[in-house]
Amino acid sequence: MKEYKYYGYLPKIAEMESLNTMRSYTIVRMPEAVQNVSKERIKYIILGCGSTGYNVVEELGQENEDLIIVDKDEKRVEDLRDQKYEAIVGDIRDPDLLDRLPVPEIAFILANDREANLAALRTLKNRYPATYVIARATDPVSVDLLQQEGADVVLYPQEVVARTAIHHIRKLHSSRLALRLYDLLASWEGTLCIVTHLNPDPDSISSAMALSMIARHASHNKLDCRIVYEGDIGHQENRAFINLLDIKMERLTPQILSECSYIALVDSSGPGVNNELPKTTRVNIIIDHHKNGEHLPSVADFVDIRPGVGATASILTQYLMELDIPVNKTVATALLYGIRADTRDFKRNVTPQDLNYAAFLLPLTDSDLLDKITSPTISQETVDIIGNAIRNRRIKSGYLFSNVGYIRNRDALPQAADMLIHLEGVNTALVYGISDQNIIISARNKDIRIHLGKVMAEAFGPIGEAGGHATMAAAQIPLNYFSMVKEKEGLLALVIDPILKRFSSIVGLDDEDEE
Fold first, then answer.
1. RCK N-terminal domain: from which residue to which, for each copy (predicted)?
2. What is the pTM (predicted TM-score) of this model?
């Protein structure tokens, strides 16, 4: 004969007696007992039901989950019962309270009383260690106290409200930016030239493709969009990316520039910043995820620069989502690859927003094309440059420097830096070479003590262009009067030491030499 406990009123026994099988019942009499609870286990128990507790109750009630509410305020309990909730009067500090309740799978301790919440938490964890407990902190001190007592989750409402407010204001701001961009594009006619950064990468190219799609949609095809670039597309994956997606791009010339009614910059924070536009060029749109202090938002009609985002492609994806513009397979594939490439497959400078945008794009992409883009053949020059970088490396106190000499394909430099940063004992890697017009430096970092982008900007910004993120950065130093020198490798050997000395001085390598 099996014994069952019944929590409720005696009249319920009659209903239970109608069952065919014989059972023995232990009646647990409870003052103002909870009605309709006939289980020894229950999903939720709410201990303390002020404003916070009531909001939790309403959310759980929408899920039709079993729950019991305990509060010491008789009037509040009566109101809850009128709303068809299971509620009893009880003091959550009472160590015997749990004797009158089923075993909870999850317990919320939400009173506006620090000592009461701590007492209830101790009782719950001593009696039912496996119960998952969410406890409310009434002040910053009680956050630590509740965690020490074993609360699985501690909520500090003021902090939750602040975070929620910031999240909503950022979402509202980004939504308004998307609408403002759309309205601006809708008012234009003519030719929009979308300028990618120098030697464009998938992030820059895919962002240009998405902006072109938005512009055509907003203007009802009254805007002719042209994606233009300067420099070279040397990285084998970038070439595969453009060829497989059949992306139409044009080299920027003075003739094309004169035909532009409007100019947009993507993945570049201003004219002359990682592009060869004159700094005085009037641009209309700037969208980037790198901040440059030299250029103020007033230089363009529309500016959206978000240094906290992992890729410019993420910003453009957010526009498409906010504006509810249908995304075709080519653009979706390009944007997803752009986000993946700039975050190194979500392992570098990635944010939760980047992951959300990637999740939005994933079902819309062509997976076969993605596989082909990420598995291209490697050019002989790239192999040679990587080989030179390995052979010519010098390591000092965790800093690696490597001279690869004369280069035609500058995209091989970051590939070499990506490889060398993984060498044992290396925390920061600088790989540099010389082209017809510039000395080019690509750097990688895993030393949490330095922000590589800021160091590079301080060291090389005054004599060229430099910057980037904490873990990856680049610099370009123009040769100016030396551009006509034929022996480029000899020139690099002559001038590189004083140039690198600026970097060494900032990170403290010169101090180590003196010691």
1. 41-155
2. 0.58
Instruction: Judge whether 402 and 431 are in contact, CB under 8 Å.
Output: yes
DSSP state of 4: E
Distance CA 26, CA 33 (A): 15
State how far the Cα of 422 lies from the Cα of 86, in Å rounded to an integer.
60
Q: 171-374, superfamily in CATH?
A: inorganic pyrophosphatase (n-terminal core) (3.90.1640.10)
Average pLDDT on 67-82 reads 92
Dihedrals phi, psi of 32, to nearest 5 degrees:
50, 55
pLDDT tier at 343, thresholds 50, 70, 90: confident
| 394 Cα distance to chain centroid | 35
Rounded to an integer, what distance in angstroms lies between the CA atom of residue 339 and that of residue 336? Answer: 5
Helices (H), ranges, 295-351: 312-323, 329-342
- β-bridge mates for residue 440, sequence order: 433, 476
244 Cβ neighbours under 8 A, 6+ residues apart: 369, 372, 373
The string of pLDDT tens digits covering residues 242-266 is 888 888 999 999 999 999 999 999 9
Question: Class of 380-507 per CATH?
Answer: alpha beta
Give Cα separations from 306 to 310, 313, 316, 454, 467 (angstroms): 9, 12, 12, 16, 15
| Largest Cα span, the chain | 104
HSE-CB for 484 with a 13 A CA cutoff = 1
Beta carbons within 10 angstroms of residue 453's beta carbon: 22
Q: What is the CATH number of domain 39-155?
A: 3.40.50.720
Q: Can you tell me whether residue 79 is helix, strand or coil?
A: helix
Query: At residue 421, what are phi and psi to the nearest 5 degrees?
Result: -65, -15
Q: Which ranges of 138-198 would DSSP assign to H, the alpha helix? A: 140-148, 157-186
